[in-house]
Amino acid sequence: MNTPTKLGTYALGLVAVFGAAAGIGNAVGPVGPAAPAHDTATHDDPDTESSMDMTQQSSAANGAHAPGGLQISENGYTLQLDRPDLPVGGVTPVSFRILGPDEEPVTAYDTAHDEDLHLIAVRRDLSGYQHVHPELSPEGTWSIPLNLTAGMWRLFADFDPAGEDAALVLGADVAVAGGFTPVPLGEASTTAEVDGYTVTLDGDLVPGQESELTLSVSRDGQPVTDLQPYLAAYGHLVALRDGDLAYLHVHPAGEPGDGVTKPGPDITFYATAPSAGDYRLFLDFKHGDVVRTAEFTGSAGAPAPSVPDRDEPAAEGAGEHDDGGHAHG
Ligand SMILES: [Cu+2]
């Protein structure tokens, strides 16, 4: 009966390896009582003794507030679906309201990217992506048919209520009845094919930092230089974090008609990844009067620090860590 012991030893070995891999900033290691938060642990979960320090490092690296899309209610606004579950098959009407701080449906919106509200639907395995623009009734109900396969879906409403300074992204789940096979996240890639078009991705997502991403569209080996404006840009990019579907803030660089921005082949965006990890990127672009979506899997940051601290000469890199005051636990 010493199998459990062996397993236990093996597990401890794994923890030790993991602790070593986590490297800098992690002298305490993931076992044992939680290290007191170094500086600015912004999450207020009091029960974090088993959480990994890597996660804490990642969130500490992000000075911004929480990413969008993770909440059904925020800043007094609530996404209220008419039905939390839907039948499977074909095209299904979906309707919802945005309730304001007065709990009444919001009927006045500021237009952003040519629309008052953008609805993103994606199954929770990041398949089935749809970006649509529902119709608003005078009473404040948004309606749109969606093509929903069986499974758990996430709906994101991206909108800016009139009178508010900033746009909100609220998210809600919808269960679609029936059996389904989860689709694995695709391998990280810088090339996507859609409908005879090839889209390449240049640039890296950086945890906690805005980075430039350039997507370049070609067809039959020829750069596409006559992209059509779509949503006041030559492309619309949505990025979702694998695992919780956090919705990244992305904005295009330039817009059609500004005298600078060309209609392809390159479309440039600025995106901020809230943490290290995998993301799914969805680029909508319009050409030949058809909107198509190119999808990529991308990673932000390295999974673990690759260079042990002591091997670095006392140069600029180490200096930066010391400034942060949290590199050496
Ligand atoms: Cu939209």
Can you tell me the residue ranges where pLDDT is under 50 for at least 5 consecutive residues?
1-64, 309-329
The total strand number stands at: 19
Q: Which ligands does the model contain, each kind named once?
A: copper (II) ion
CATH fold naming of the largest domain: Immunoglobulin-like
Alpha-beta content class? mainly beta
Q: What value does the Rg take, in angstroms?
A: 23 Å
Distance between the termini: 40 Å
Q: Outline the biggest β-sheet.
A: 6 strands, antiparallel
CATH superfamily of the largest domain: Immunoglobulins
Give the CATH level 1 class of the largest domain.
Answer: Mainly Beta
- Overall mean pLDDT score? 79
Helicity range: 10-25%
**What shape does the CA trace take?**
globular
* CATH architecture designation of the largest domain: Sandwich
How many structural domains does the protein architecture include?
3
Amount of beta strand: 25-35%
| Number of distinct helices | 3
Order of helices and strands: HHEEEEEEEEEEEEEEEEEEEH
Describe the fold and architecture.
The radius of gyration is 23 Å and the shape is globular. Strands 11, 12, 13, 14, 16 and 17 form a six-stranded antiparallel beta sheet that branches. The chain has a five-stranded antiparallel beta sheet with strand order 1-2-4-8-7, with no helix packed on it. The N terminus and C terminus are likely disordered. It is mainly β. It has three helices and 19 strands. The chain has three domains: 59 residues, no CATH class; 104 residues, Immunoglobulin-like; 110 residues, Sandwich (Immunoglobulin-like), CATH 2.60.40.10. Helices cover 12% and strands 35% of the residues. Copper (II) ion binds next to loops. Keywords: Signal. This is Heavy-metal-associated domain-containing protein. It comes from Blastococcus aurantiacus.
